[in-house]
Amino acid sequence: MLTFAPSSDSAAASTFVSTRATSERSPFIFVGERLWLDFVNCEQGVRRFDALRDFETMVRWLEAASLLDGERAAGIRRRAQQQPAGAAAALIDARRVRSALRSLAERGPMSDRIRAEGLIEINRVLGRSAGTRRVELRGDGTFIRSFVPVGDAFAGLVIPIVESAADALILGELVRVRRCADPRCQRVFYDNTKNGRRRWCDMSTCGNRAKAARHREKLKAH
User: Fold this and answer.
1) What pLDDT shows up at residue 220?
2) Which fold has domain 2-221?
3) Which of 32, 45, 145, 167 fits as disulfide partner to 37, beta carbons 3.0 to 4.6 Å?
4) Are 192 and 33 in contact (CB under 8 A)?
5) pLDDT at 112
6) pLDDT the model gives residue 4
7) pTM for this one?
8) Which whole-number Å values give the CA distances from 22 to 27, 45, 115, 126, 186, in the listed order?
9) What is the pLDDT of residue 173?
């Protein structure tokens, strides 16, 4: 079962906010504030760890992003062993989707062409999906939207991610998508600050590096 945040019925419902804490042992980083942006960033994990380096790592990222529960992840792994060609194709497709979404995040706000290409990719993925969407009650009393693929077990893996990107287009969120101000960092994020002036993907890493660099410059000046 794939689980994901509600789609674009309302602004609040469509938001996927990555508030989960990143474990010290986890190579994955969630700072994008939106699911699709976290997916774009998944090639820039701890020590530049790429979550799409192989199919197993991709499944681990989907689990960390709360898109696969343990039962569904185990089923996907079994299917990958039975159908390695299908798993390899799904991985290649996920990389294609990520590349298209990165272009949308970085250049979409300024380019009609990039937005149009992003829309084509989004509709390509959504158009091939077959399954059942439903709302389920979780153990903590909250509700979550789920997607249960029918047929190809791999077809629905990136559906929640693509739907998150679709919500960004529908809600006009691209104007608030930023790339980290650290030139060494390629992460992108949704700027949800009131003044729209957030610069860093994460203050504890890139922000602190910039602060330390400014401090060193001040010491040199004296």
Assistant:
1) 61
2) Jann2411-like fold (1.10.3300)
3) 32
4) yes
5) 94
6) 43
7) 0.78
8) 8, 10, 31, 29, 18
9) 96
Could you give the CA distance from residue 189 to residue 136 in angstroms, rounded to a whole number? 28
Both tokens assigned to 97: 């989707």
Domain segments of the chain: what residues?
A: 2-221
CA dihedral 20, 26, 28, 30 (to 10 degrees): 20
Residue 148's identity, in one-letter code, is: V
DSSP β-bridge partners for residue 4: 145
Q: Computed from CA positions of residues 95, 100, 86, 80, in that sequence, does the dihedral angle turn out positive or negative?
A: positive
**For each successive 10 residues of the chain (222 residues), what is the average pLDDT?**
42 38 68 96 83 96 92 94 96 97 96 96 86 77 74 83 95 95 91 90 70 54 56
Contacts of 79 (CB under 8 A, 6+ apart): 86, 87, 153, 154
Helix/strand/coil (H, E, C) string of 189-209?
Answer: EECCCCCCCCCCCCHHHHHHH
Contacts of 2 (CB under 8 A, 6+ apart): 67, 68, 72, 146, 147, 148, 149, 156, 157, 159, 160
pLDDT tens digits along 17-65 = 343 434 446 889 999 999 999 999 999 867 778 999 999 999 999 999 9
pLDDT tens-digit readout, 126-135: 887 667 777 8
